[in-house]
Amino acid sequence: MLTDRTRVRRHADRGSHDRATIHAILDEAYVCHVGFVAEGSPVVIPTAFVRVDDAIYLHGAVANHMLRSLAGGACCVTVTLLDALVLAKSAFHHSMNYRSVVVFGRGRVVDTHDQKRAVLDALVDRLAPQRSLHTRGPDDSELRATLVIEVPITEASAKIRSGPPVDSAEDLVLPHWSGLIPIVTSLGAPIPAP
Q: Is the domain 12-162+175-182 a CATH 2.30.110.10 member?
């Protein structure tokens, strides 16, 4: 997965090309940002996704401009999980703890009925485990109306920042508070539909 595009240059010690690390970050995230070029201009769109094996899958209506652009087109898919705000004694050394992944690739249309159905089930199950067993699956007309794009995870890297602030030695004597403010994302209690 290491290529010139995925080489982490700034703070290279925070970079990883380990497949298990990349998969774990992707599996924890619910939203990715997809970058692509449409009509000569760069565009970045947030969207839901699911990872199955060594690919990211995106879905939407067959008329979806992003998905149509990705069919055979180059893209960059990114995910960022924020873990903490890092407050240092100096403004210059403030930061964030995060885990991120960048995947470069080309989209491929998933055109077989069985694979499309399996990916859509995986997406629903990503939102709530085993949810696909407790819903009506898509019928043939819904499958025809849905475009599914696969982006193989063959060119990817992770970058992770963790730990306390890293202040300059001369700032350590300053009276200002420094430390971490954790960012916690959790699912709330289910609220039934009316």
A: yes
